[in-house]
Each structure stands twice: as C-alpha cells, then as structure tokens.
Specification:
171 residues; alpha+beta; 3-stranded mixed β-sheet; 23% helix; elongated
C-alpha cells in the first residue's frame, strides 16, 4: 500500500492525523512518520512534469504554433490517464527547460478539443532566446523530425481506476 497523500479538502492538521495513524506508517517510528507526513503535505501542490513527443500541427514565421500535447482517455508513458476537463482553458507561460530562473519565451493558450489538449503558442520573437528555440523547433517540424517536449502541471485532483485491465492514475 502507498504512503497516504493529502486529499483536496483536507487541512494540514487533518491530513497529518490521518497520515500518522495510517497502517502503512505503523512500521516507522513517531519522528520518521512525522517527517514522511510533512514531506507528503509539502509535495501536495508541487510541479509534476510529463514528457511527450511533440505533435505540432502548424508553425508560422510570425512565431505562432499549434501543438497537441496530451490525449485524453489514453494511458500515457507514465501509466496515467488524463480525464477530459483536466486542462480546461487557460493561458500559461512557455518556459525553457522548466527553468523558472529564466524569462519565459512565450505564452500558450491551452484548451481542449475532443480528446486532445492543444496549446496555441506565441513565441516572443523579439527575444533572442525565444527566436533561437523557435527556429530549432521549426526546422525539426519542417524536416518531419519528432521531438520530445514536456509540460509542467500541478495535480489538483486524482484517482485510481481500472483501464484496460491496468490500475492507473486518473488526472
């Protein structure tokens, strides 16, 4: 059985009490249980990263691009399944290599269409770093070369479910 994780509606004290009393935690001493439970609480809203093979639909010279970055209701490489509505509609930063110490190189309007999560990207072409990355991505796109990308996300809600005979995490 896994170490308990915070539930969305729980306060820190409610989670800590539940975690400390969980049967999985019984094998640990009091101090170690507290450390593990505290770490689980701190991780509750941490950034997760998913890698995917880029499926750019279009890239224009003005620095705009359209990419499919997730498919709903399909088990991914991590053994997760993304549920429709997980992304909704939002505007996000395009961040090089998930390095938040660097300026973002563009923005993306994320939305879902059917079973696809799509990002309409606008690279900041007046920035040298954004133009360089855009140029490399476009060259690979034009040559038909697949590329690996990733996106970061925070899990707001998850569950376990049986899909195709596998126990997967629903996001």
């Amino acid at each position: 059985m896994p170490i308990p994780k915070p539930r969305e509606e729980e306060t820190e004290s409610e989670f800590t009490e539940r975690c400390m009393g969980d049967e999985v935690m019984a094998e640990y001493g009091q101090d170690q249980r507290m450390a593990v439970c505290s770490a689980q609480w701190e991780r509750r809203k941490s950034m997760n990263i998913k890698a995917y093979t880029g499926k750019f639909r279009e890239m224009k010279e003005d620095g705009t691009a359209v990419v499919v970055f997730a498919t709903m209701n399909v088990i991914d490489k991590d053994g997760d399944i993304t549920i429709p509505g997980a992304f909704g509609e939002q505007t996000v930063k395009v961040q090089p290599a998930h390095d938040w110490s660097l300026p973002n190189i563009g923005i993306a309007k994320v939305h879902e269409v059917g079973d696809e999560a799509i990002a309409d990207i606008q690279f900041f072409m007046n920035m040298a770093s954004a133009k360089e990355r855009y140029t490399a991505i476009k060259a690979n796109f034009d040559a038909g070369v697949d590329q690996e990308y990733s996106y970061g996300f925070t899990i707001l809600q998850e569950d376990r479910r049986d899909v195709e005979g596998r126990n997967v995490r629903g996001l």
